[in-house]
Amino acid sequence: xxxxxxxxxxxxxxxxxxxxxxxxxxxxxxxxxxxxxxxxxxxxxxxxxxxxxxxxxxxxxxxxxxxxxxxxxxxxxxxxxxxxxxxxxxxxxxxxxxxxxxxxxxxxxxxxxxxxxxxxxxxxxxxxxxxxxxxxxxxxxxxxxxxxxxxxxxxxxxxxxxxxxxxxxxxxxxxxxxxxxxxxxxxxxxxxxxxxxxxxxxxxxxxxxxxxxxxxxxxxxxxxxxxxxxxxxxxxxxxxxxxxxxxxxxxxxxxxxxxxxxxxxxxxxxxxxxxxxxxxxxxxxxxxxxxxxxxxxxxxxxxxxxxxxxxxxxxxxxxxxxxxxxxxxxxx
Amino acid sequence: xxxxxxxxxxxxxxxxxxxxxxxxxxxxxxxxxxxxxxxxxxxxxxxxxxxxxxxxxxxxxxxxxxxxxxxxxxxxxxxxxxxxxxxxxxxxxxxxxxxxxxxxxxxxxxxxxxxxxxxxxxxxxxxxxxxx
Lengths: 332, 132
What we know:
The complex is a heterodimer.
Chain A: H1 3-7, H2 11-33, H3 40-72, H4 83-106, H5 108-118, H6 125-128, H7 135-138, H8 145-150, H9 154-170, H10 181-186, H11 190-197, H12 214-218, H13 244-261, H14 265-273, H15 287-305
Chain B: H1 3-25, H2 36-46, E1 55-57, E2 63-67, E3 72-78, E4 81-87, E5 92-95, E6 99-103, E7 112-115, H3 119-130
C-alpha cells in the first residue's frame, strides 16, 4: 500500500460509525449494570459538544495546517513515507501530546480550551467525544511544531494524531476495570484515565498520557487508581448546567473578568498563564492548595484514629463510623 | 463546506439525537439526594475541607442545604449527579407555596428549590453561622 496515500486519509472519519455503535453498546450495558452511568441530557450535551468541535476543527484546521507547513520548510531532515517513520511519528506525537495535555491543565489559557472535555460529571464513551471548540486559541499545538521542524510530513503527523485520538476513545469507560498487568504498565487504559478525569484531591492533575502511560511515569505525574477510592468525575467547580455555550466558553469568560478586574499588570498576566484557580490574593483553590488541605486532613484523621497506647487496639475516643460514608452511600 | 461534510454533519445530528433518545427511553440517569447523610457526603466530597453538620433535604431529593463551619453548601441534582456551591450566610431565600428557593448568584447554576422546606427552616440552619 502506498503510505503517502494512507497519510492523506482521515482515520477519525472512518471511526465515527464505530464510536456511535460503541456508545450504543455502553448505554445498553449501563441499563443492565448501573443506570447512573448515563443520563440523556449529559449524553446529548457531550455529543453536541463533539459535533461543535468538529465544526470548529473545520474552521480552524486550515490555520493549523498553514502554520505546520510554514515550520516544515525549515525542517532538519527529509523524512519519507516509510513504515518506521510512521511508527516513530506516532511515538513522538504521543510524547508531544503528553506535554500539550499537561500544559492544557497547568496553564489557565490552555485550560480554558480544554476544560470542556472535563465538564461532564459522568465518565463514559460519550464523554470522550466532548471535545474543545477553542483548541486553536488555546495555542498548545505549538508544542507539537518540533515534529515538523524535525521533518515529519504534515499529513503523516495528522494521520498519527488521528490514530492517537481514536485510541483515546475506548479508555473513557467504567465498563472495563483493569487490563492485563503488562498492558497497564505501558499503555494508557480506562483505569489510568479515570484517575485523570477525577476530582478527588488524590487524583487531581495526574495521568496526562494519551496512548503510552510511560510518559507520566517518566515525568512524575502518574498515580494509580485505588480500589478503595472511587473516582468522582468533573471539575473542581462543576457547572451545574447543560448549556452548550457555557460549557465551551465559561473559562474564557472567567479569564476575561479576572484580567479586567486584576489590580496590576503582573496579576493580569498571571490570570492567563498561572494554573487554574490561581488568584492574586490567594483566595481561590488551586489543585496544589486542594491537595495540601486534603493531605493535612488525612494526617489529622490518621492521628485521631491512632491507638492511644500499646494496649488499645482501637481508639475508644474515636468518633463512630458515619452511616453515610463514601463507601456505603450510593446515589440512587 | 462541501457535500461530504454536509452529509457527515446531518448524519452526526441524527446519530446524536438517536443516542440521547435511547438513553432517555431506557430511563438512565435517574437519581436523588436520599437523606441528610447523603447530602453531607456530597458536600464534603465536592468541597475540600468542608465538614458537614445539619442538613435540609428537598422533598423530591433534588436539592439540599448543608451547614458547615462559616459556610453553607448548596446542592442541586444535575442529571444523575450532584453539583455543589459553597455560600456564605446570610442566604438569599425566597419563600413560595412549594418550598424555599435559594439564590446562588450564578445565572447558569440557577436558583435551588427545596420542596417542602420553609424559609424559617433555612434561617434556622444558618442562624448558628451568623451569630457574632
